[in-house]
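MFS transporter
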Amino acid sequence: MGPVTRADNVDVPGLLIDAEIDDIPPAAPTRLPGQSGGGPESPQGSRRALVYLGLCLVLIGLNLRTVFSSFAAVLPEITSDAGLPGWAVVVLTTVPVTLLGVFAPLAPVLARRFGAERVLLGAMAVLTAGLLLRPADIGGLLPGAGHLPTLLAGTAACGAAIALCNVLLPGLVKRDFPHRLGLMGGLYTTAICASAALGAGFTYPVFTATGEWTSALWFWAVPAAVVLLLFLPVALRQHPVRHQAANLGVNVWRSAVAWQVTIFMVLQAMMSFSVFAWLAPILRERGVDGATAGLMVSVSIVLQMTGSLFAPALAARFRDQRAIAVVVALMTGGGFALSIFGPLELIWVWTSLLGLGQGSLTAVALTMIMLRTRDGHTAAHLSGMMQGVGYGLGSTGTLMVGQLHQATGSFTAAGVLFLVVGSLAAVFGYRAGRNRYIGDSSRSGQ
């Protein structure tokens, strides 16, 4: 990836940051059937293999958010049937997001040792195992234990696996489809948003059909297992090469601009993952039935997809991004607060405002990676910093919502919290949106 010096070069594919960009020797494209010698490669066979690889990568993306939204869709049923204490509910909604930040820095290290494809395969295996484990009841083995130990262990495994996929998958999409970045970038980002929408929309109907929340959660292990089997032959064909990190690019940890962008990311993550974890329970507490609440969350996430598609191009057209960052931050915080204490007759309006704002806010935060850096190495380092710090601290949003609900017995205080978080996101979005580059001391005041 060459230098980024013009804002209008930034679009959705530009957000595909290669986590292996500093590797020496450079990571090679994924080996496809017909590339291992033994005669000329069939162009038709190569095209089929490339389509198969693309399908696998998109399907992996389609499994990266169901963990969050499926649990929230049946949270009241899980809490009641499993007898979960308040602290357990808070932990179960917070831990997976925290682990996204904890395990993100390990992904490039593991990829240098084992290869990105095999790490992705291992992550999908752990994700499948976690999805199978979390609804299990071990009361027969450990009397009195019930579901809580497996819920905790399975949820933690899923969070760790998703962290690895989050970091490595965009680089594979960019590396293996350099001439189809528009198509593959759009499919990849849409798949991740669709993953959250599917988890929110289909979990409660599965619960209604089976009468068991355990079946509703186990259901999501099926698509993960299918993708694991589909990707297995691709990963096993790879021959890992030991790589070393070159540590090129600017030291983003010493950059004031990088910290402003990262804090902006933290604040948007606080709201984003709180939507996955708490919006369905918020709606149900307000009297919305489970199926309708799931549909509302799904529609809100579909609107997130709309915002994420248009916001990067819109942000890149401006000389700086201060105005759009402020607007989408206030839309998100206001939409979330109104979903909690706004008039119930307009609840579809509030959740739609939240969805459109949240999708745009997330996209603008990610677009800052390209707009505030001059080269791919610095962009990759900023991306790593934003994921590690952003997700790690961003999980405090779900934590605070849970604690406020436990302490007050309602979500009203959480509505005030999101007004504050949205306002802070507007402040730091204004700071991060100024037209400056990381490492350019003459323009950034570093």
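thats it. The two ends are 25 Å apart (CA to CA). Residues 213 and 440 are 53 Å apart (CA to CA). bye
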